[in-house]
Task: structure prediction
Amino acid sequence: MKRKNTWQSLLYASCAAALVAFAPTASAQQYNVRLDLPKQVIWGLGVEIQSDSIGSGNNGLPQAPTSVPHDLTTSERNRLATDLIGRGYGFRYIRLAGGLYYRGLRNDGKNLDARWPEQLQELSTLISQSGAEGVNLEYWSPAPAWKSNNAYIGGSLKQFDATFLGQFGDAVVEDIRYLKASGVPVVQFGLQNEPPAKPGTYPYCVYTDDQYVLAYNAVASKVRAAYPAIHLHANSWDGQNRAALRDGLDMNLVDAWTWHRIGRDSNDQIDNAPMFNANRMGKAVYNNEFEYLSGGTSEARMMNTAQSIMNWFTFVDSPTWYWLHALKPTYNAEAAGYALGYWRPADDTDFSKFAHIQPGHFDYELRNWRAIVGFLEWMPWNSQRYQVDEPLYTDSNGVQRLYRDKRILAFRQGGAGGKLVVVLSNRDTSPYTFNINFGGSGSFKGYRYRVDQWKQALTTVAGPVAAVTVPTNSIEFWVQQ
Result:
């Protein structure tokens, strides 16, 4: 950015920023839902599944098949499918980490496979019971036969000539075919998780920008030819932010740009809206991994997660958003910042932690779960977002700004003909009153989510204009009756 506050003029000039500023009256901070200004269709949310083992602190690949749904009892597998993945309208996409949580091998190490006989059937049953559409297959590492070091951890592809990449592309298509034939539908595909990164302790494959362009174009062309309906995204790191990718990738093979803004403050989407909205090349932009790498979780992080979802939809026009993990093991150090809940593997006999969770069972991490569950319960797939005109305040430097800690989102359930839902969140230190013009008459029933409350029913308010006071650390869904 060339000078201070450049982002403000860009933000308010951009249609993608999805707001119109107006001066609030002295007595009210009014929010106008603009049913005449539809924005993007929101496809639904995504979540990753730990369907194989990883060492505590993301360190190493244990041989034991510690995973879900494998470790769970039959009743708990059903609860995972219907109460977590399929809660309400449910998660639409399940992110499947190829070469990490799906890392068995076949065809002389050239293709992925289950590591135990039931693994793919377990995934297939989870998907069918939950109602999820299918998996987002993304490689943490290709099968080792394609790697320069013949291993999952480290290295890059062996070669980048057209013949080799064509063969590699055929192997990727075979991986997809095999999953689909095993009852695991593949609906999205990404070539590589975080291609420039070198984590060192779990599977990865490094690509320079030029190498990524060559490999992506070769592989994606094969996938598109074999499975035209699969959604293709690049690059699970910094989206469209690098000119080498924008210039080199075949845009006919890119359906979306994907980012990892892991654990960032939700103000990121407000302050950096010009970056997220620039150079899109007409493609969707969304975050396909969100978690907290260190420091566990908290009530403040619960609110930040909810507002991250809201702000990606509002300021980047994102069609989806992904949380990292459905469940993590009780003995993994990273679990609190990564998971919507914890399960106890059979080999965890340390009941000094999570004493109430029995082997083969799971329980929720409420500070993560309550941030997300309302969107699963009230936002059907393919809901239609609408612009909300928001008030501004003047900060101590005389700059007009949005209310960052008080956020709003509006959509019609399942499309333009559905019921209107207005989502409100307040992470400020005191209650805040939203004066909402719902854009028409009718009544709205509220449901509040907090660490200590799940879908608390609130008093119905009548439109077209109503005042709604939201307590601190609360997320509310106001649903048209």
User: Anything to note?
Assistant: DSSP finds eleven helices and 24 strands in the chain. The two ends are 45 Å apart (CA to CA).
